[in-house]
Amino acid sequence: MQRIDGSAAAPAGLQPVRPAPRKGASRAGDPARGLVRLLSFVLPGPVLVEGEGAEVLLRRDAERRRVERALLTLCIRRGLLMLEKGRLTALPPARPLLRRLISGGETAFLAQHARLENTRLGDGEGQETAVLVNRHESALGALALLKDKAGEPWFDAQAIAAGERLSADFTFAGLQPRVTASWEPRLSGRAGGARGGQAELSDHQADARARVARAADALGPELSGVAFDVCCFGKGLEQVERERLWPARSAKLMLRTALSLLARHYGL
Locate the DUF6456 domain: which residues (predicted)? Predict the structure, then answer.
């Protein structure tokens, strides 16, 4: 789990993000306001996390709040919040950052670590969902800018969206390695109890873990490695080639094939 010190100057031009209106959902007019609402809700004490898709529901007793999954994922990855067994708690860096955000003197966290953009994902049944993705956090943000010789995107929008979905599920499932570990043992490992290795997971984390496992099965052993390396572990293409002893520029080809297959798996 990474931590931040949360200090940088906010650049001009950080544009508001306006997700599609939804009854009961938080209207985050801009990412900083959404972050204030999220931290303010979690800091008083642990909350339960429910739901899947573009938004999740935070619940504490009778209180409810909907937040964008991308913003929640960003806070978990940057050491502001911790999700364990379906319970979300604030970590020490969250309180001082919230004070700076409320005072109006600190949008550095989002400026440095987030570029949140709206995209839409299909569910394979003709329905689309508005999804907020973080282009700075994902290695796919840079890869989305790659062009082929004709000037067309090397990775189409469906491929990028598929990679973002895999990344979000992977993070929400709590599969990030704490030091150095492979994701495979934690997907397949089983502990005691009726639900095996998922006995200590919340239902929603278990669902996310199952989606990751299905995605890995759909990709197969030949393509799942590069997809997880880039989408989930944030490795660059050159690093993948070095570690796997692949020829130069081969990772780009393999990843495009993997993401195209993943997009079909998700029905995009």
Answer: 133-267
